[in-house]
Design goal:
The protein is mainly beta and about 130 residues long. The chain is about 0% helix and about 45% strand.
Length: about 130
């Protein structure tokens, strides 16, 4: 069982940055693949980034590649999403997720992740 708690969302201007955190209040992030997803109003939840384990390359959605960076800090049971050059299209609720390490072809799939946080709102507007 893993209980995930996200924080760090907020209101930011276009071009700005935010850093989201996801702490495992229960369970260990080191034992799972960890991912970030987001859901904009009226849209389906979509993949943002995922990391199967420490030391593995992180997989990013094309829409955020080069702007977002995932960092995993197993000692703190925390995973981060550093977001830069934010655009209004990045406005969404961002969710942290954990699951048994899926094969790479499934790493972007929602159904690969069993545990989800409550989400944190990111709003990019001038």
């Amino acid at each position: 069982q893993v209980q995930l708690v996200e924080s760090g969302g907020g209101l930011v201007q276009p071009g700005g940055s935010l850093k989201l955190s996801c702490v495992a209040a229960e369970g260990s992030v080191g034992s799972y693949a960890m991912a970030w997803f987001r859901q904009a109003p009226g849209k389906e939840r979509e993949f943002v980034a995922a990391n199967r384990r420490s030391g593995d390359a992180t997989i990013y959605a094309d829409s955020v590649k080069g702007r977002f960076t995932v960092a995993r800090e197993n000692a703190r049971n925390t995973i981060y999403l550093q977001m830069s050059s934010l655009e209004p299209e990045d406005t969404a609720v961002y969710y942290c997720a954990a699951g048994p390490r899926p094969i790479l072809s499934m790493i972007r799939a929602l159904r690969s992740y069993y545990y989800w946080g409550q989400g944190t709102q990111v709003t990019v507007t001038s």
